[in-house]
Amino acid sequence: MIRKQITDKYSVSEQITLVDVNTLAKSGVTLIICNRPDNEEDGQLAFADIASRAKELNIGAVHIPFAGGKMQAADAELFKQTLVGAHNTHAYCRTGNRSSLIWQAAYPEQAETPKIETKKPEYDVVIVGAGTAGISTAASLLKRKPNLQICLIDPAESHFYQPGWTLVGGGVFKAGETRRNMGDVIPNKTTWLKKAVKTFVPNDNKVILENDQEITYRFLVVAAGIKLDWEAIEGLSETLGRNGVTSNYRYDLAPYTWELSKNLKSGKAIFTQPPMPIKCAGAPQKAMYLSCDHWFKQDSLKNIDVSFYNAGGVIFGVSEYVPALESYIEKYQIDTNFSHNLVKVDGPNKRAYFASKDENDQPIIIETKFDMLHVCPPQTAPDFIRNSPLVDDAGWVDVDKETLQHTSFDNIWSLGDVSNTPNAKTMAAVRKQAPVVAQNISDVLDNHKIRAIYDGYGSCPLTVEVGKIVLAEFAYGGVVMPTFPKWLNDGSKATTLAWILKKDILPPFYWHGMLKGHEWFVKPIMRKE
């Protein structure tokens, strides 16, 4: 429990345990308030259990629950009445944020009292995450403000060009071509802390590292990426890289995908896609199409039963690109299965298990054998993000979808896979988002109103065969947004130009352009006043 003292008589924290109740009692707490609905997430300790332990220790316990972002005036009023006469109160919710906000709503005159800064922040900007989003934002900021004191926090030793892993799995790239040492891509004039983050204290402008070191900032950018939840599928972790089970979503496994494709001459190949959101929603299909293209050209496809199991209900979310994809599904004779979610893998016996529903809409488990299984794992925000005060009810960093500024903390921004913007989680999205964040922070530094907005642009180069790609480009709401005129690249068809873009142009563009702060073709859109 990380306890945040709001006043000398009121503190807040994330979800507490029964042991924490004992600790609070020893510290003199006389009232516990829970601002969290029961059953908000699996494994959550019920308020009744907290109240029972509190009663044993002569502590009062009151339940004033509300969902994140849905506090009502009546909640604040009840909260204020509850605190009348209370000597020492502790409130909690999932992260502590709601318990802070309800106090501010109940006592606005105290909440608006300005803090007196006693110590200058260590950094102008702290960026959590040194992936594509973090490094691109740092580079773009330095293009605008070369003297900014910027700190990048990330424990990783390597930086990866992850869009290249599809081509590694298709035998086009070598894995090593997609990796650089992290120290070689960190922008000059920035500080790199090779540490992991434990949590955030946004009311004090602090990032807490795993070793409990506190880093202070004027502005925070959260670009922590996404968590690949391999453990969510029973038996998967134990068999990855063996028994015909692979995934292009991991650097060390993408070469195994190509090895399996080369060696499979007959049998059953299965490709899976979990529920959204996932990064690069086209990647599970890309792996399938490239394998099928190899088998087709080797004249072995007729001996291989290829199946696509998708937890979703459609082949692709933007309808304009579906006909082109369906033509390749027909060409490769792929059996598509929608509303089928992989839940278990038995590697030694080569069996996959999918959760689905029967004709009566009742849950069922479908078992099928395989000789090759390509898995896209379920994905969530990293644990330290999900358990922080920065997130929405789904666990993603809560930002304005246009300005990318946090909805509760004005000096915090977020971009990339970890934010809750309703766009496709792709590198192309980050390419547009980084200049927006950099411009808006620069404007705040100059005491200007923020005006740069992100339009939801994302791109998915759907690699349907070696040499051809269906280049899907779209913005918020699935609005098609092509970069090139139709005569140059028709996005409704597989084209050679899109393949050249993916294979030959984008990798050097990434390493020598995007990560260096060059904003070619992505000048921020400015909101009209």
TrEMBL record:
Coiled-coil parts of chain: none
The source's domain of life comes to Bacteria
- The Beta-lactamase hydrolase-like protein phosphatase-like domain, residue ranges: 5-104
Q: What Pfam families does the record point to?
A: BLH_phosphatase, Pyr_redox_2
Q: FAD/NAD(P)-binding domain spans which residues?
A: 123-240
For this protein, the record's PANTHER family field holds: SULFIDE:QUINONE OXIDOREDUCTASE (PTHR10632), SULFIDE:QUINONE OXIDOREDUCTASE, MITOCHONDRIAL (PTHR10632:SF2)
From the Swiss-Prot or TrEMBL record, give the protein name.
Answer: Bifunctional protein tyrosine phosphatase family protein/NAD(P)/FAD-dependent oxidoreductase
Q: Whose protein is this, by species?
A: Marinomonas colpomeniae
